[in-house]
Amino acid sequence: MLPVGAVYQVPFFQNIGTTATPVIGSFSPASAASGATVTINGTNLTGATAVSFGGTAAAGSPWIQQLKSGQWSATVSTGAISITTSGGTTTSASTFTFLSNCTITGFSPTTGPSGTSVVINGTNFTGATAVSFGGTTAASFTVNSSTQITAVMGMATQAILP
Hints:
Radius of gyration: 26 Å
Order of helices and strands: EEEEEHEEEEEEEEEEE
Number of strands: 16
Strand content: over 45%
CATH topology of the largest domain: Immunoglobulin-like
CATH architecture of the largest domain: Sandwich
CATH superfamily of the largest domain: Immunoglobulins
Structural class: mainly beta
Shape: elongated
CATH class of the largest domain: Mainly Beta
Distance between the termini: 96 Å
Largest sheet: 5 strands, mixed
């Protein structure tokens, strides 16, 4: 029994079982195609059990091993990035944009010297950042549409395109 007027101090207890809520601070790049790696920065991401892009689960395990990186397959979607840990699920404030891989279905002409203008037909060309012929960067190019690019063969390039 405590004497009258005595002060009793309650010891501080910490709940070891509480896990902090994850937070996504940023991610880079903001857009990419299949097979690329996106770096996700934030706090309390350790122990991530799920990562999704636009509601589609990321494929592979690098994000589990590296904790702050995600690598995905061609099935991801455009949208917010979500990460789940034992502390909960967080969703990015910014939207990630999935860029479909492009395919080339044909081009014309099939031969020519440097400076030749080549029309390339295919799919998913929107957002193209580079064109090359046999490993040599095109002198210039214009994305005419999601299905067509016009590129000028660079100097020291002469290609016989298959």
